[in-house]
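Write out this protein's structure.
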Amino acid sequence: MRKLRLSMLNRGLRRLTQINADKRRGLFSKEASMHVASGRRGANPALQGFMPISRKFPIYLSVLLLVGGVSNSNCAATETELFIQSVAEKAAEAEAQETTVVSGNAGWLFFAPELRSMSIGQFWGDAAKEVSRASNLAFADPLPAILDFKAQLDSAGISLIFVPIPAKATIYPDKVVGALRCGVTVRTDEHHLKFYDILREHGVNVLDLTPLFLQNRFTDAGPVYCKQDTHWSGQGCVLAAEAIAKAIGVPSWAAEIPKRSMQIETRTVEITGDLWKELGDENLQKEQLRLTYVKGEAGASRPGVGASWRASPVVLLGDSHNLVFHAGGDMHAQGAGLPDHLAYQLGFPVDVVAVRGSGATPSRLNLFRRRDKLKGKRVVIWCFSVREFTEGQGWRKVPVIQ
């Protein structure tokens, strides 16, 4: 009898996951999203048979675990599928309500477009046009543009380090849907993993920060993402800088670059996160964040040793993750961002080419406008959020060096 119950539960879950996988891509039409948000199903063909699970997520795995018939691998696979479906529903609800904020657990806030980007499956090749939000679907596929840029850099003898920044929900899935029965270190981004493997097969040096971030989700230094902002935290910047510096290594050309004396100082600051502002709930206490500032020689009163250096052999290219805690203003602070900590690790500043917006095409256009063919550059670090694969302005080939 126990085996029969387990078999029925497994068949039911397989049926649920298959139905929802078939329907998921239809969720993000405006009409479909409105039906999900209102709880009405059946009127829209895209939602026929769709079973929303975002409020029931913890139950499914609990039932299977109680009957005691789920292996660790099956648990992880089933839980990942349920998580992705729950994230898809939450993103659709936010879209229907015309908001970009999804409230999670314990005061955590998430960016709805990023949740959507996690839920749409394969985003390259023939599938790209089906899932991309690019205005011109001719530039929906990220793969050709990435490989073209690598080929240009190869022709100039410049190394590319490709650093996709994991989605916040990939590192903190429990803050979106509740406690995970199979452990929070389970990878929920299988399509990103597949894409990175394809890039590596084409010779791209992909630095996947996800394992490092999962290992450091909560330490004495704090979480690796802001609770109320779309960006990583100060600790995320520190970890990323250490990993990137390790990936660069100690090449012979580095010995020719004059090194600067730098110190670090840690302070706790209050930030007004972009998601906090978008939510509009003034009763929600603002986030207190620990930042590590990089400063010059002893006695220097203000940070700035990590300011962008145009002559640097290292280019930091990408989106606003390269500006947060570095550029000041709406980026919260100066002297505590990724460029600053890269300077601290390398001993010299980097050349920052980052934009408030899409780190895919616009950032490379900024390189193109320089018209210098990256003369004197040795390494390009291309660092941006994974949501850029589907939620940005598209992936044009840009003749930076040609």
